Amino acid sequence: MLKRFDWRHIPLLLFTAFAIGPLVLIFSNSLKSKEEFGENPLGFPKELHFENFAEAWVVGGYGQAFTNSLIVAVSCIVIICISASLAAYALAKVRFRFSNSILGFLLLVMSIPMGLFLVPLFYVYQNLGLMDSLLGIIIIYSAIFLPFNIFLLRSFFVSIPDELLDSARVDGCNEFQILTKVVFPLALPAFLTVMLLVGLWTWNEFFFANAFLQTEELKTVATKYLAFTGRFGNDWRLISAAGVITVMPILLLFVFLQRKFIEGLTEGSVKG
Amino acid sequence: MSVAKHSKQHWKKSLFPWLLLAPSLLLLLFVVGGPIIGTIFLSFTDWDGIKAPSFVGLENFSRLIHDKTFYIALANNIKWMAIFLTIPVIMALIVALLISKIARGKLFYRTVTFIPYILSTVVTAKLWSLIYNPFSGVNTALEDWGLDFLAQSWIGDSAIALFSVAFADLWHFWGFLVVLFLMGMQQLDKSIEEAAVVEGAGRLRVFWHVTLPQLRPTLVLIYMLLIIWSFAAFDYVYIMTQGGPGKSTELLATYMYDLAIYNYQPGYASTVALTMGLFAGLVIIGFRFIQKKGWDV
């Protein structure tokens, strides 16, 4: 029997085209020659100029920028995984006074506009010599991405049955060993989500990076791209190639791990 | 067990959660908590960022009340919010409904509409600058198709620039709402819907009277997020128009950023920031109140 075609696919495909059309445009422009972009800015390229990527990579100084972004991402992942998991465990499994106030405080931090703490932080950083340093930006990112990940891990820890922890206690584990030997191994999938989200956010963030990193050699990929577009004004072919370079790592990760990305990003906001 | 030992153990036990929380709380107090107090303090001072700040009482606030740019930015934030509370919500709701009703390809559509959300805003904002570019963007296509009358100076015309920029942000963001709606729809009670259909209710009536009311918790969450984010909106305006042409796309966040980073008026910038924070705070309190009243979840 022939299956009936569902009419719903027609509007859905239109929305899909809306979602990825601009992306197709940036990929196709990144492969054009300068002349062809002038004649044909919206169509597909007639011949493929992959050398645009090499040119953008070199003149944009992307090697350095990728290294910086990776240093920042890995450091933030380590700091957040450790501090968020400890905090999340306390908020999920330990009964103590003020635990609700702490949850409220975290929620508040998550919802306030970042501009609210930008100015004093800027001057504190100038006085502490943290301005224009990767360490400085790592500290900021670790803090601002922390609350979301605490909520994410907490909702996972809550689902671990208390009986399991009690039986570990009976077996002679102390509280610290319960964390390292029982809770953390169980929470590996949740840690993977945290790693992905922190990687994503640190890679894309530019509000703080733009204000706190001024030296070209220290810029992360996102701010490097911003400087790049300033330098190459209207060379949209090169700007598109640099854009593709900037989003490629995230896009590849997303293709392979899309379910984890989507669930992590949405569940964290629902739980909060 | 001796009393001393018991109380020592008790003390240890009550200290344990605070030890676990210490790294997180220290980080947050250093980066967020302390500076917020700093912002509150600075909003009462006149400061150029170099000399010591001098206390001026409510002077910044009276300047704010007479600051035309502040009102333009505030009005733009409200327009921005109005755009975000309608267009992407309706789009996402339609798409989520369609996805929930099809048999095959659910995952495909969910994934593809989500892709823009994970991309770096610096790149997507530049990409939309290209799309809006009068010489190489969507206008050239419109002219090719004989639709010249639709061609606009999308981000150069102060009448439509704000909408154009918001639309770019909306493109980046609406797939996230699709997923939130899909999650909400998974928890719907299908039997009520089926009963309504059996009773002879039309598709639209079922949606309006049965499906939509059940989605209320999801809608409340989405509206809270959108209001908070609308008052913090920054990226797309900063990259695409820097608040221009004129001040037609100036937002509170971009105004504050300019004052703080480029115009060396951190004191007054703090006052603007504090006002933004107050709006966000009011929204959160409002929604918590609604939640406590049992209106949702």
If you had to describe this structure to a student in words, what would you say it looks like?
The complex is a heterodimer of chains A (272) and B (297). Chain A is mainly alpha-helical and 272 residues long. Chain A has one domain (67-232, 247-271): Orthogonal Bundle (MetI-like fold). Chain A contains 14 helices and no strands. The radius of gyration of chain A is 23 Å and the shape is globular. The model of chain A has no long low-confidence stretch (mean pLDDT 88). Chain B has a domain at 83-249: MetI-like (MetI-like fold, Orthogonal Bundle). Helix content of chain B is 74%, strand content 1%. Chain B contains 13 helices and 2 strands. Chain B has helices at 3-42, 59-65, 68-101, 106-118, 121-132, 138-144, 161-186, 190-198, 203-214, 216-232, 235-240, 252-262, 266-292; strands spanning 45-46, 54-55. In chain B, β1 (45-46) and β2 (54-55) form a beta hairpin. In chain B, α12 packs antiparallel against α13 (266-292). The longest helix of chain B has 40 residues, at 3-42. At the A-B interface, α1, α4, α5, α6 and α7 of A face α1, α3, α4, α5 and α6 of B.
Keywords:
heterodimer; A: 272 residues; mainly alpha; MetI-like fold; 14 helices; B: 297 residues; two-stranded antiparallel sheet; 74% helix
- Estimate what percentage of residues of chain B fall within beta strands: under 5%
Q: What is the CATH homology-level superfamily of the domain at 83-249 in chain B?
A: MetI-like
Q: State the share of residues found in helices of chain A, binned by percent.
A: over 70%
Q: Number of helical runs of chain B?
A: 13
Q: The biggest beta sheet of chain A, please?
A: none
Uncertain runs of chain A: none
Sheet with most strands: strand arrangement of chain B: 1-2
Largest sheet of chain B: 2 strands, antiparallel
Rg measurement of chain A, Å: 23 Å
